[in-house]
Amino acid sequence: MSDAFPPPPTEPEPQAPQQPAFTQPPSPWAPPAAPPQGQRRTGLIVTLSLIGGLVVTGATAALVYAFLQEASESFARAEDRVTSRYDTMGPEDEEGWEEFEELEDGEDFGEFGAPEDDGPPAEKDATITKCTRDSLINWMSADIKVVNGSTSPASYVVFVSFVDRDGDVVTEGLAVTDDDVAPGATARIEAQGLGEVPAGTKCRIDRVEREAMTG
Predict the structure, then answer these.
(1) CB of 127 within 8 A of CB of 143?
(2) Are 139 and 194 in contact (CB under 8 A)?
(3) What's the pTM?
(4) What is the DSSP string of 74-94?
């Protein structure tokens, strides 16, 4: 071979294919990957919204239960007043009631009747001091001040109507004094309406029962 010609190029040696680097599979006990920042913020908002909704629902249910309990107690006190009054005055059998009614209709009813109630009309003893529509459940209540204008200790039952702007009754309630009110003394009671009422509903005293107490 002449020195004038360069030697032929050598062919590159074939290289073995490179194996991919070994990666360890994720552990099934490993914590999940953190979500992107935007997803975490959205999840937090949803969680807080659900918690807030549960809190409001629980508060509403508790408030409704409290109002129902208060109204139930007022009705129970009024029923006890009426029951105790007639249990002490009325006979037990049917014939006795007939005689009792004859005595009641006669002029000499006297000591068998209810204690005489002196003083001004009972309606003048009760005044509504506050009429409120609850902002959460839209139920009505009326705060009432009772001043005994008679000369005897007395118990009171105040019947209240809640009327809308057209003057129509939308619900009713009653308030009962827990204890007998002394002459000239003041008692504060509350009448609770049941059910939702429209905005603009007002409170109105329909009737006041004053029962003079003796003994």
Answers:
(1) no
(2) yes
(3) 0.54
(4) HHHHHHHHHHHHHHHHS-SSH
